[in-house]
Amino acid sequence: MTPTPNESDWWRQPAKPLHRPAGEAAARRQAQLTKPPGALGRLEAIAIQLASMQGRERPALERAQITVFAGDHGVMAEGVSAFPQAVTGEMVKNFARGGAAISVLAREQGVRLEVVDLGTVNDPGPLDGVIRLRLAPSTANFTSAPAMTESQFEQALAAGRAAVARAAGAGAQLFIAGEMGIGNTTAAAALACGLIGLPAQLMAGPGTGLDAEGVARKAAVIDRALACHAGQLAEPAEALRRLGGFELAAIAGACIACAQKGLPMLVDGFIVTAAALAAVRMQPTVRDWLLFAHASAEPGHGHLLQMLGAQPLIDLNLRLGEGSGAAVALPLLRLACALHNGMATFAEAGVSEKHG
Ligand SMILES: Cc1cc2ncn([C@H]3O[C@H](COP(=O)(O)O)[C@@H](O)[C@H]3O)c2cc1C
Ligand SMILES: O=C(O)c1cccnc1
């Protein structure tokens, strides 16, 4: 008999299986639409993939939710970002006032946007649209200690799961996780190196705009962190607790919860992909529920996408985060559904089919 997991082990439960018959029905429909078979390229594959996720021949993406998880990083003491730590809390206020890139992208597309404040050094205080789940002002500096205590880690994972439950409760058909946390490209790179076993040099990039010297310093900081936690990183959840951040753990929790609930997740750039890789390592069945939005300009992103066998939808040289790349790619998914659902078949339109 399989033992019932503890509530704190919820993330060990597998994903909901995909609905293969709905995907097969969608593939048959695609072959009947008035176009040469395959002519809509990856838009056809996306519609079929969404059909097997949603368990219906005609998938729909009218309602989506974006949750931006914010948190500060102890590793900022090592001078790893081009921007000061205060920006994390300041940007939480900017999200609430509607002035950030993700605020515009959400508003423009009628997508629900919420922010979860998991702990910032510069406390923005209570704000409309911001859920306060502050675990600490920041994580610990992971060059000398685990980023999170076990209790903080559990609460951060649960914060991601709770956001997915709110999205599902509001009828969302797609979930986008965003992040805000100055220094989090360092955490994402360290986590990726810890999970994959790559040297820091391949994962450290400019983030918000470090110069070559800054990137070299960042790589050295990551190497020190990897040395500090050597021998403790075999379990992916433990790698995430030691080298991640509050928002990275919440996003990993959200990936797993989406997959368990059967809600597709559109993955953003470098940071969200690092958290998604941790989620897939923690629970491999999660991979089926992830769609990849864009190729970030952050140099390590290509390695992460390759590890996940992921082909992103767009490549616009974005390097912002906040979920912005996913929000920019969302219209493509919506158009894939509209084409799939709205085009006439050869029979309906009286158009002659291909020879033979
Ligand atoms: C004004 C501003 C808005 C942002 N929105 C997202 N990020 C992005 O930059 C940060 C990661 O880069 P690094 O590791 O180099 O600090 C994260 O907060 C990420 O979301 C921002 C950064 C800034 C400065
Ligand atoms: O791709 C990302 O997620 C990213 C890259 C640079 C800075 N912030 C986020």
UniProtKB/TrEMBL annotation:
- Enzyme class of the recorded protein, top EC level: transferase
Q: What GO biological process terms are annotated to this protein in UniProt?
A: cobalamin biosynthetic process
One Pfam family, short name: DBI_PRT
Keywords, A to Z?
Answer: Cobalamin biosynthesis, Glycosyltransferase, Transferase
Region listing for Disordered, in residue ranges: 1-29
Q: Which reaction(s) are listed as its catalytic activity? A: 5,6-dimethylbenzimidazole + nicotinate beta-D-ribonucleotide = alpha-ribazole 5'-phosphate + nicotinate + H(+)
Q: Which GO terms describe its molecular function?
A: nicotinate-nucleotide-dimethylbenzimidazole phosphoribosyltransferase activity
List the residue ranges forming a coiled coil, or say none: none
SUPFAM superfamilies listed in its UniProt record: Nicotinate mononucleotide:5,6-dimethylbenzimidazole phosphoribosyltransferase (CobT) (SSF52733)
Supply the EC number(s).
2.4.2.21
Q: What positions constitute the catalytic site?
A: E322
Give the pathway annotation. Answer: Nucleoside biosynthesis; alpha-ribazole biosynthesis; alpha-ribazole from 5,6-dimethylbenzimidazole: step 1/2
- Function summary: Catalyzes the synthesis of alpha-ribazole-5'-phosphate from nicotinate mononucleotide (NAMN) and 5,6-dimethylbenzimidazole (DMB).
Q: Which family does it belong to?
A: Belongs to the CobT family.
Q: Which NCBIfam families match?
A: cobT_DBIPRT (TIGR03160), PRK00105.1 (NF000996)
PANTHER family referenced in this protein's UniProt entry, alphabetically: NICOTINATE-NUCLEOTIDE--DIMETHYLBENZIMIDAZOLE PHOSPHORIBOSYLTRANSFERASE
UniProt name for this protein? Nicotinate-nucleotide--dimethylbenzimidazole phosphoribosyltransferase
| Native species | Sulfuritortus calidifontis
